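Consider the following assembly input.
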Amino acid sequence: MSQPVLTMEGISKEFPGVKALSDVNFELYPGEVHALMGENGAGKSTLMKVLSGVYEPTAGTIRLKGQEVAFGNPLEAQRQGVSIIHQEFNLFTNLSAAENIYIDRPEMVGRFGRIQWSKMYEEAQQLVDSIGGSGIDVRQEVRHLGVHSQQVVEIAKALSFRADVLIMDEPSAALPENEVKKMFDVVKRLRDQGVAIVYVSHRMKEIFEIADKVTVLRDGAWIDTRPIGEVTEQQLIYMMVGKEVSKLYPDRDHKPGGEVMLEVQSLSLDATHEVSFQLHKGEILGLFGIPGSGTHTIAERLFGLKGGAGDIIVGGMPAVIRNPGDAKARRIAYVPPDRHRQGIIKPMSIRQNLSLPILPRLSKGVVIDESRVREMSSEYMESLRIKAPNDRQSVDYLSGGNQQKVVIGKWLATHPDILILEEPTRGVDVGAKAEIYAIINRLAQEGLSILLISSEMPEVIGLSDRILVLHKGEIVHEFAHGEADQEQLLQRASHPLTEGGRL
Amino acid sequence: MNAWTSRLSLRSNTLLVQLIVLFFILVLFSILSPYFLSVSNFMNVFNQMVEIGLIAIPMTMIIISGAMDLSVGSMLAFSAVCMGVAFEQGLNIWICVAIGLIAGMLCGALNGYLIARHRMQAIVVTIGMLVMLRGLVYVINEGRPISGFPDGFYFLGQQYIGVVPFNAIVLMIMFLLAHFFMKKTRFSTYIYGIGNNEEVVRYSGISVVRVRFILFVLSGFFSALAGVFLVSRLASAEATSGTNIELDVITATLIGGTHIFGGRGSLAGTFVGLLIIVFLRNGLNLMGVSVLYQAVILGALLLLAVGNQKFNGA
């Protein structure tokens, strides 16, 4: 085996009051994809920030190509060959791809400060082509590019510094399911060119598909590094969580009732597409589709966030739902996909967040009855096991999993009959995921009817009694419980017309 | 945990800092001017701050909700002139007061309708109203002052109960009611919520449109009420009434610690901010400082107070 391109030894990083990393070792070889895994807060991001020059380590050494280095800032790290691609794209959407790739680079500036446009376009195109993006015109403004192409531009930007080490932080998070494969092709191509890639991800399936090695961190400490062939998913989860998560998905030991709680007839999603389906009492109905398939629009229509034609029948009664208030009155609850923007008010306390939708019920006249609020909030803190010192704590300081439980709690407090869950475990670590799945299952058993919309296939398959697959605004297939596997699901969602055929 | 407690203490410290500034101003002018520290001067100051103070109540709520109302001065004048014109038609003065208040609420409702229902920018809408209403005021009464109101009406702005001006008592009661309102009612939770994250409030099944609409109607009502008190105090309804009052109101609110980007602020803070600017102005007046320099000093104070407010910052 060749020499490692990068060695991190005994890396520690302390913040006031917190030890984010303690004595972490990490080795990276050219031409390998090295997955970095761990729960939220395990220290992955801190380690990558140390590596890319954002943070200075408190202790430890970094050697790049045998030389000891200390990066003062990310630009210095890039110049020496370590580039990072963040989860969120950092592109100027109103500039061309080429401008984004070579922004603020002296080598593209000619005499009298003139930008050498032709040189820039030429080199940018070469770079983009070399990683399989030959369909992309680098003169085009980034906002006209698709998500995958934007990511290619990000990667090209990182590589334009002749990167030896490329860090990819949750690269699939921003991509639709069907574009992940294309991203893998790019990663493989880079690997074959000898670039060492650190691949940070939560997604097990991707790790096993793309990585050569995996390193697990937990609570800021290095746990293990193994070739991917020598570990199982169970072992990885065990390493990450530190305890046995025996079953991520709970057993479904009940049958949903026959009573129809929600019936949707010819609900329009856009000008030309409409859907009809039924949701039974105590049923978990999964809705799966790639972005743009209409699953999100169904949630918006049912919750009154978007208008349109069609009938919504709740508990046998036709319902007119023009806004979220109407939906709430019909006992429909919606846990939205983006909790930061739609679910929680961060500076407010757990108690205030939990009580927000039901304040009229917790008031005497116009005055809020604090004792009733306290009672309600401690009830849900307990039943959902929201971990916080007390319910006056601002939700900003909770982990992603606990924040998500607050969003679920605030809607359970409305005593809904129908619960729409969209991406209920996005950005939540494995331990909290299992807890949330158990909660969802318990709620269904108690008779709540649940509409589960998720882009995580294992989640949809593991929890749903039935799965409806959507493609471009139409329901193209229905799977009964236990019928679907990931491959079939994805195939139905992306190519509904190739009956039973392989991709 | 650390960050949370430190932020909390920082926030309560803000009020403490404001009180210290106020105390400093009071002591400074007591030393510099022999006329400053007297009951009659203080009561005079209280009598004159009522209009700014009344409007500062809804303004604080509106700024906490992440919006702004620049049309308050014009709404004040419009209501005052509507009242005056109605009085000239021979109506009972209290009916005229009601007409003035209704006129203010209608202006506020128009602001609210455009901003809440049609999601237009509050600053743009209220600048439009500021200019339009002021023009309308000149059109209605052709620029001449209206006076000759009955004695009973002057009670509002000129009468003293003991040594305390009646209108200052009204202002105190209004502030106490509003303070209670902002501490205890669900409507206030919605206001803070909207200022922090409007989407979450909407996604919680609460009508953001209604809350915003009510706030602007409230602003119209309090501006009109301030107009009524101003006319009573000065014994005259004029087209220039309340010109630039929005600057004083917003300055008091922001010096009082309300965050310009919304989500944070309190009426207690606004009250202290109000006292800071009125006593500062009164002290400078007593010392014979020109109005032009007063503007420079107040502006500088505002920059100091608000300069460290950054988006999403402390």
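Chain A has three domains: 6-241, 250-331+417-503, 346-415. Ask yourself how this observation constrains the way the partners meet.
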